[in-house]
Amino acid sequence: MKQYETVIGLEVHVELATKTKIFCGCSTEFGGAPNTHTCPVCTGMPGSLPVLNKKVVEFAIKAGLAANCHIHQYCKFDRKNYFYPDNPQNYQISQLYLPICYDGAVEIETSAGKKTVRIHEMHMEEDAGKLIHDEWEDCSLVDYNRSGVPLIEIVSEPDMRSSEEVIAYLEKLRCTMQYLGVSDCKLQEGSMRADVNLSVREVGSETFGTRTEMKNLNSFKAIARAIEGERERQIELLEEGRAVVQETRRWDDNKESSHAMRSKEDAKDYRYFPDPDLPPIHISDAWIEELRTSIPELREAKMERYQKEYELPAYDAGILTESRHLAGLFEETAVLLGNPKKVANWFMVEVLRLTKDKGLDPEKVSFTPKHLADLLSMVEKKEVSAQNAKKVFEKVFDEDIDPVVYIEENGLKIVEDTGLLTETVKKIVDENPGPLAELLGGKDKVMGFFVGQLMRELKGKANPDSVRKALAEEIERRR
């Protein structure tokens, strides 16, 4: 039986996090009533002229530098002509001949080890509008709020061979863009979108097969399923002696199948020509160096530093650096407390748990690091129990309250009154003659029952070590 190899290249569209659109002053904010973030420029009105947003060029250069790209210091915009309702001008302003970034590479890591994926180019362009299909009214409506939102399109070489490599590549791009602050890369809002170009060939062959392009992929899971589905479809065609047609296909994640949309266009079909309304862009050496020095510490470097500076395991460093924002909160808290490992454990358990439970974007977590450091300091000094500290932290997480004040006002400080502790131990032991008999009979596990009862009675305000000691002394007296 023939063995097949999958060959995959990606076109990744990343919406840039500028406040205004690429060629006009309209807001790029996600949402809003349809067609309210618009003007004559981004709706393609006759006589309107585009003016380039400098921040778009800055973000594109930073993204290119982070992906080890060369920068075209002289580049320009071209018109890509196509006719579709979501494209108000009947052309898209993009870059074909001189993209701003080219010949880059990123390193990914999968279960098979490390691998380099080459980047053919990154170019700037404007986004199109959005079609809303109304099945009840049997019509399609157009929202131009997204029209003119700045994009960079990142075009890879066909270097990936599996869905695992594709997801690793996308995760690397997403994390890099988020660390740079050039995009939030929210797939659910369309600020990161990927088109998958896929073909199959016999193992050992040097010739590429006929490729198809997969669209409508808005999650990493959908992308992985689409890759496996298209791979199987193409292999089945070849096994039946039929040809794979070069075309654009739309993936239906609910049905886990795809269908043909249109024949795949080549560059000549778009009749590209230089945009006459926009002058060429000249990028100086000084500007490139200025942007290079402004690039923050990226995830890989941060992970390595955490392992060396904080002596954290590689796994912990990986978890803590998934979000640049949370990593910043962690570092500030670790410096204040002086115990990075303890802070790391708290972040990986409590911070991530609450973030997940509340469905919160990690970038929206906003407690003050000093408040967490103060709380953990009280735990270390045994001024508050770990159980109560977790409850207090929920208030810190939600409302950023001062934990020291809150613990004092709500009587949550650990009680060191030995008289009260002794009386409570006697009371609990007297109220539970059955478990006491089992304990005296040699069932040591029952000790945990008594500790739990005591902590409950004292509302978590007793030192667990003191509780165990007082309980052990009382049991010994009863033997």
Commentary on this structure:
The chain has three domains: 4-286, no CATH class; 297-409, no CATH class; 418-478, Arc Repressor Mutant, subunit A (Orthogonal Bundle). It has 15 helices and 16 strands. Strands 2-6-7-10-1-11-12-13-14 form a nine-stranded mixed sheet. The chain has helices at residues 54-66, 163-180, 220-239, 285-294, 299-309, 314-320, 324-337, 340-357, 369-380, 386-399, 403-409, 418-431, 433-440, 446-457, 464-478; strands at 4-15, 70-71, 74-75, 78-81, 91-94, 101-110, 113-126, 130-134, 139-143, 150-156, 192-202, 212-215, 247-252, 257-263, 273-274, 281-282. The protein is α+β, with helices and mostly antiparallel strands and 479 residues long. A hairpin with a 2-residue loop joins strand 6 and strand 7 (113-126). Helix 2 (163-180) packs antiparallel against helix 3 (220-239), helix 12 packs across helix 14 (446-457) and helix 13 (433-440) packs antiparallel against helix 14. Residues 328-475 form the Asn/Gln amidotransferase domain. It is an enzyme of class 6 (ligase). It comes from Blautia luti.
